[in-house]
Amino acid sequence: MPDVSTASVQVGASIDRCYEVVADFEHYPDWVSDLKEVIVRSVDDQSRPKEVSFRAAAFGRSTSYVLEYDYSNAPSVVAWHLTEGDLTTKLDGSYEFEALNDSLTEVTYTLEVELKVPLPGFVKRRAQSRIVHSALEDLKARVELLSSGPSRK
């Protein structure tokens, strides 16, 4: 049975800036600590990454997975679901952005994970919690760094 984790953080930037960083997959290895490689496999009719391949560190080894992205509620929500995974059967989630004012956004990250290999519940929950926390803190740091300087990715 999949586990769902959700957490939020306030980011000192606009929704558009948060969305821009989340949708810039080619630069994820620059700011997402466990990611080793990201390849955009396909784009949608608006040239946004649709299918993205990832290689990451997980459980002391390397894991590979492919996510398909849904922008139907962009820029307020970027959602994804797993299409291929060597360790996971489900890795679905979303970033949701809510403007608190022009330069402050609440970002909520939701992740639903199901592994192919059973792990004790506490190990799985700890790993999932670490992923969610890192995703939000890494995003906050990246967005605020880019927002403090000239516009760039």
SSE pattern: EHHEEEEEEH
Overall body shape: globular
Largest sheet: 7 strands, antiparallel
Query: Could you name the ranges where pLDDT drops below 50 across 5 or more consecutive residues?
Result: none
CATH topology: Alpha-D-Glucose-1,6-Bisphosphate, Chain A, domain 4
Helix content: 25-40%
How large is the count of helical segments? 3
CATH architectural group = 2-Layer Sandwich
The overall average pLDDT, rounded, is 89
Give the tally of β-strands.
7
Proportion of residues in β-strands? over 45%
Whole-number tally of structural domains? 1
Structural category is alpha+beta
CATH superfamily: START domain
CA-based gyration radius: 15 Å
Briefly, what is this?
With 153 residues, the protein is an alpha+beta fold. Helix content is 26%, strand content 48%. It is built from 3 helices and 7 strands, in the order βααββββββα.
List the helices and strands and how they pair.
Layout: E1 3-11, H1 15-22, H2 28-31, E2 35-43, E3 49-58, E4 61-70, E5 77-85, E6 88-101, E7 104-115, H3 121-148
Antiparallel strand pairs: 1-7, 2-3, 3-4, 4-5, 5-6, 6-7
